[in-house]
Write a structure and sequence with these properties.
Elements (H helix, E strand, L loop, with lengths): L1 E6 L5 H9 L5 H4 L5 E6 L3 H10 L3 E3 L2 E6 L3 E3 L5 E3 L1 H8 L3 E7 L15 H31 L5 H18 L11 H8 L9 E7 L7 H12 L4 E7 H8 L3 H11 L5 H13 L1 E6 L4 E8 L4 H8 L2 H5 E8 H6 L4 H6 L4 E3 L9 E7 L1
Parallel strand pairs: 1-4, 1-7, 3-11, 7-8, 8-9
Antiparallel strand pairs: 2-4, 5-6, 10-11, 12-13, 12-14
Helix pairs in contact: 1-9, 5-6
Length: 361
């Protein structure tokens, strides 16, 4: 899974990227038109507990890739230009984190002078909608010409989906808030439409706003949150300082400032929710591992995440949920005795926290 971090200049976008990935980007690198990538292990206390029980040769966390998306430029009028390069870099991501600045700093002025979260979020939304509308209209024109020459059923199925998109885009509605069937979503997948991507709006505050930031989040959330849009907050400068500390010291630091969850934990939790993702585990003396799948996946589909051959060779899945396993002292035998360990077929819907052992031919 790849999540792109976007934001206007001086919003704290690169600060957030460096904080959650624990990387350092020097000033020279920040000025280059190259996206910065980093793969982060997803923290999971459940996997840590399982690893402590089994003492495996290796423990493998699920991972997520963050991208510091570059390409925005200042126009002649002083306003931000959404370049073709920037839009192309955005397309490759599964979801977006849009960093929005709510702190004032005379030494680093906002590119649009004043602080206005709704204006900044709308600027991205407008550009994404315009880009999508151009793609959709071009494709509709081509299909209409092709349909006159062919009876291609795929084109006839694709056209009403694109017409649906055009209607909503013309109404200035981002496509991520529109309901699409599985078939419609599959058709749209190849277009990498920008306004279709699930989005976290991350409001960036400074330490002077610790006591008041909640009141500033509410109006943005009321206006912008929707089916696939969520508003979160973080304190960029504080988080940057915490990321450079050992875990124990960082925890004390968080307690002092009243921060309940790190920016990394918040972003991963909300990104999982927006993308409909969950984790299951495989355990043993050789390896304890977390696997990421979409909610609603069957045991057979989940087996394919482990190895593609397991899909066709799937026989049964041995299943026990993490909570039940731990409640029975981390014993498979006791989990069997209490009926929490069981055999499931290919149609079993995997739950977040299931421990699976796949039987295959």
């Amino acid at each position: 899974m790849q999540i792109g971090i976007v934001g206007l200049p001086f919003s704290g976008k690169s600060t957030l990227f460096q904080t959650i990935t624990k990387t350092h980007i020097d000033a020279a690198a920040l000025t280059k038109a190259e996206a910065h990538h980093a793969v982060v292990k997803i923290p999971d206390a459940r996997l840590d507990k399982l690893s402590a029980l089994f003492s495996p040769k290796s423990t493998v966390h699920a991972t997520i890739e963050f991208v510091d998306v570059v390409g925005l430029k200042k126009g002649e009028s002083g306003s931000t230009q959404f370049t073709t390069n920037f839009l192309a870099n955005v397309k490759t991501n599964d979801a977006l984190v849009q960093v929005v600045r709510l702190f004032a700093n005379d030494a680093v002025p906002h590119p649009d002078v004043t602080i206005d979260a709704l204006r900044d979020t709308s600027s991205f939304e407008t550009e994404f909608i315009i880009s999508d509308l151009s793609i959709v209209e071009t494709r509709i024109d081509r299909i209409n010409k092709q349909i006159q020459k062919t009876q291609d059923e795929h084109l006839r199925k694709e056209l009403p989906v694109l017409e649906k998109c055009r209607h909503n885009l013309e109404e200035e509605k981002p496509l991520r808030e529109i309901d699409f069937t599985k078939e419609e979503a599959y058709i749209l997948k190849t277009y990498q439409l920008l306004s279709l991507k699930p989005t976290l709006i991350a409001l960036n505050f400074d330490e002077s706003q610790l006591a008041t930031h909640g009141d500033m989040v509410k109006p943005v959330a009321a206006k912008k949150e929707g089916k696939n849009t969520k508003v979160v907050s973080f304190f960029g400068k504080i988080e940057m300082e915490m990321s450079e500390l050992p875990i124990d010291e960082a925890k004390v630091f968080m307690d002092e400032y009243g921060i309940k969850e790190s920016a990394l934990d918040t972003l991963i939790r909300e990104a999982y929710a927006l993308l409909g993702l969950q984790s299951f585990f495989t355990v043993g003396e050789d390896e304890c591992r977390a696997w990421t799948i979409r909610k609603g996946m069957t045991a057979q589909e989940a087996a394919g995440a482990i190895h593609s051959d397991f899909v066709n060779k799937f026989i049964r899945a041995e299943v026990v949920h993490y909570d039940h396993f731990i409640a029975q002292g981390g014993s498979f035998a006791k989990a069997k005795e209490t009926g929490h360990w069981r055999l499931e077929g290919k149609e079993y819907i995997v739950n977040d926290g299931d421990i699976l052992s796949i039987r295959h031919s």
